[in-house]
Design goal:
Immunoglobulin-like; Perforin-1-like; alpha+beta; single chain; secreted; 11 helices
């Protein structure tokens, strides 16, 4: 019996333990106490299209006194057990530290795959009761977020892949009631919405969405987040013989060095190229990497630091500051129309939210093109492996005023040389032969020279060389006359560079989406 009593006491203590950090406070100490950190980061309007808070609140987060002039005071163990007050609408507040200071990294080969990851901070099914669960051909959440806008702009310029690096610390969590008390402003705005929905009244609902968004934040985890999204010019990195995996590994190492998580060491040549964003093959001045950085919570740390040496002072100040000034790192959201009592207005708002989300959705991209291993100078991701490569076609047109050692019209032909390959026109007996012979040399190295020679039959079945021309080929279509001691002949050639190559010798990089 004594053992049973002890067991019951232990169970009771376990249930009370989380509650003992909070108590009822009197008005004087309530007025004096600060709010819990991030007390106003829940119950706020939220736009699921941009993944941004709207700064307009659907519930009252400033009232903390009950009708009896008391409040809830909680001891914050993350801030020296300081007593802090909670708004009346906040429930289940608690410190809950989870801080992974090591960076996580992920590779994405398209904007679509990056977009799919950008909404992972939403911890619930945000599509509930919006009729969007079966939308399969569009990506909706985050379609106009900052990182997706950045990624789309990069993809419009060039063939691009992406890498994200992220570090997240979570320190607090809490929620608002399932049906929270509405803020006066939100309540009045809802009441002003017309019951009749038409082309003439739809703008009022759109204005409501512009103000409050599509959802409200119901539950949050607060802390800080550092996230860096890097775009890679896929084909420029391929030309530099740097793979996406190398870029990811080098950036991970550089970021870890800068944040003071690992000791700086001598980097490989490829990592130096990555960290210096240096194209050493074509001299492309914009480099092959671009990035944006997002820092949430804490002080005004920019997230900019050296990646070749320990430059972590600002980072550690930021880490220390997010306990006092946290931001949302993950959250659950509910559609705003759930807060509307009028059935007619609720359905109208639901309809307008659904239309707004779908209008801003992005079509799902097809899988990136692959080229296998059968194409010369193309990697499996369809990028050139080397510069100075292209496709060459030579056309020998005709000649005028040819003369040989034999009496009468000479019998002549033209030899064409490129890259060790010789091709010939047919023999034609004429002072002014017309060949119109076209020769394909296929895929060539543009650093070599094109040579053309005119030959005619001589004495005793010998061939006499009348002359010729040697030319250094360049990109494009070119037409030439070759003057010899005895006559002239005309020819042309066409050099088409491999994809992503440009310049006279196909030696420069050309961004192509």
């Amino acid at each position: 019996m004594a053992n049973l009593s002890v067991l019951c006491l232990l169970v009771s203590l376990l249930h009370l333990a989380p509650l003992q950090a909070c108590r009822v406070g009197k008005k004087e100490e309530c007025d004096r106490a600060p709010f819990v950190p991030g007390h106003n980061l829940v119950g706020e309007g939220f736009d699921v299209v941009t993944l941004q808070r709207k700064g307009a609140y659907v519930t009252d987060l400033q009232t903390y006194l009950t009708p009896t002039n008391t409040c809830t005071l909680c001891s914050n163990r993350l801030m020296g057990n300081q007593a802090q007050k909670m708004p009346l609408t906040v429930l289940d507040w608690r410190p809950s530290s989870t801080c992974r200071q090591s960076l996580s990294s992920f590779f994405f080969n398209s904007v679509s795959s990056l977009l799919a990851s950008s909404s992972l901070s939403i911890t619930n099914d945000w599509k509930v009761d919006l009729g969007l669960q079966r939308v399969a051909d569009q990506q909706l959440a985050g379609s106009q977020s900052a990182e997706v806008i950045f990624a789309s702009s990069q993809q419009q310029e060039d063939k691009t892949s992406f890498i994200t690096h992220q570090l997240t610390c979570s320190h607090y969590r809490y929620r608002v009631p399932w049906v929270p008390p509405l803020s006066p402003e939100f309540h009045q705005h809802v009441k002003s919405l017309p019951h009749k929905y038409s082309n003439d009244t739809a703008y009022l609902y759109r204005h409501f969405i512009d103000t409050y968004g599509t959802h409200y934040i119901h539950q949050v985890n607060l802390g800080g987040k550092f996230k860096r999204v890097t775009s890679i010019r896929t084909c420029l990195s391929t030309l530099n013989q740097i793979s996406a995996t190398q870029v990811e590994n080098c950036l991970s190492a550089g970021l870890s060095v800068g944040l003071g998580q690992v000791e700086a060491s001598v980097s490989s040549d490829s990592c130096r190229k990555v960290l210096n964003n240096q194209d050493s093959v074509t001299g492309y001045t914009q480099g092959f990497l671009n990035h944006i950085t997002e820092v949430s919570g804490g002080n005004r740390w920019s997230g900019v630091f050296s990646m070749t040496q320990n430059d972590s002072e600002g980072f550690h100040r930021w880490l220390s500051s997010i306990k006092k000034n946290p931001e949302i790192v993950s959250y659950s959201i509910r559609p705003l129309h759930h807060l509307v009592k009028s059935t007619t207005v609720r359905l109208n708002l639901q309809r307008e939210i659904r239309a707004y989300v779908q209008k801003n959705g992005l079509p799902k991209e097809p899988e990136p093109q692959t080229c296998g291993f059968d194409h010369p100078n193309l990697s499996p991701n369809c990028c050139p492996l080397h510069t100075h490569r292209g496709w060459l076609t030579v056309t020998v047109a005709r000649a005028w005023a040819l003369h040989g050692k034999l009496l009468g019209p000479p019998e002549g032909y033209v030899k064409v040389f490129y890259g060790g390959i010789e091709q010939r026109t047919a023999w034609i007996k004429s002072y002014d032969p017309i060949w119109h012979a076209q020769f394909s040399y296929g895929h060539v190295d543009t650093t070599q020279q094109l040579s053309l020679q005119v030959w005619v039959k001589g004495w005793w079945w010998k061939e006499d060389h009348l002359g010729g021309c040697v030319v250094s080929i360049q990109r494009g279509n070119h037409y030439h006359d070759c003057w010899m001691n005895q006559g002239v002949f005309s020819y042309s050639y066409s050099l088409q560079c491999d994809p992503h190559l440009i310049g006279p010798k196909c030696n420069m990089y050309w961004p192509i989406p």
